Amino acid sequence: MEITDTYRHKGLRRELVEFLHKKGISNQEVLSAIDRVPRHVFFDKAFMEHAYEDKAFQIGQGQTISQPYTVAYQSQMLNAEKGMKVLEIGTGSGYQAAVLAELGLKVFSIERFKALHKKSKQMLQDLGYHSIKTFFGDGYAGLPTYAPFDRVIITAAAPEIPKALLQQLKVGGLMVIPIGKGEDQQMLSIRKVGEDSYEHSEGELFRFVPMLPGKVF
Over the stretch 176-209, which tens digit does the pLDDT of each residue have? Predict the structure, then answer.
């Protein structure tokens, strides 16, 4: 696939970055990462003109590409350092994984919908993100073979904190997860301070598609 990233696209990204900064995203590395990822290529052509608006859009299978503020907020909340191993639950379009890769993180990403997994894997390869490892699987199970992880980021609303994912987090590691069954979910930051002990802090309210078990072929 040929990737087209014009001066207009780059200008729209700069405007988006300025908007996110004014909205409260202060981490310059996160803002710079968003400035480098061509969000429009993750969109169907019908929605491409809306790629740099702060909105979520459908990507098929009842899933969405999160609004840029949500991606920036979760990325900032991770408080990750270059070289860290990050487990992402919910590859979706691949956009969040690309932002994490631009932050210099080693990304391991799981998607439960096979069609989305295949599409996002190809897109990330086309964009040159060869270091991102993508997997078709059940997000609730995580990736025990590759554990432990420095960070875990969940991009769907979980009804409760998945225990298997906590077990795959390093002591000292951090999980960012939206929790809740209602229309809005509470973003949580969970620090693993011991083998079975954790510290929680609450972030803003967001709206995500639900995190569901199993795989969809």
Answer: 999 998 889 999 999 999 999 999 999 999 999 9
Q: Which two tokens stand for residue 31?
A: 């803002």
Which residues touch 146 (CB under 8 Å, ≥6 apart)?
85, 87, 108, 133
Q: Note whether residue 164 is domain-resident.
A: yes
Rounded Cα distance between 52 and 19, Å, is 10
* Token digits of residue 176: 């960012």
Q: Which among 32, 66, 120, 197 is annotated as catalytic?
A: 66
Q: Which residues form the domain of 161?
A: 7-206
- The answer to pTM > 0.90 is yes
Is the distance from CB of 211 to CB of 140 less than 8 angstroms?
yes
Q: How many domains does the chain have?
A: 1
For residue 111, tell me if it sits in a domain. yes
* CA nearest neighbour of 77 among 124, 27, 116, 125: 27
Residue 212 domain flag: no
In a domain, 2, yes or no: no
Instruction: Return the CATH number at 191.
Output: 3.40.50.150
* Strand arrangement, sheet containing 185-194: 133-136, 106-111, 85-89, 149-154, 169-179, 185-194, 197-206
Please check the confidence at residue 216 and state whether its pLDDT lies above 90: yes
Q: How far apart are CA 29 and CA 61, in angstroms?
A: 32
Q: Is 93 a catalytic residue?
A: no
Q: Report the distance separating Cα 153 and Cα 149, nearest Å.
A: 10
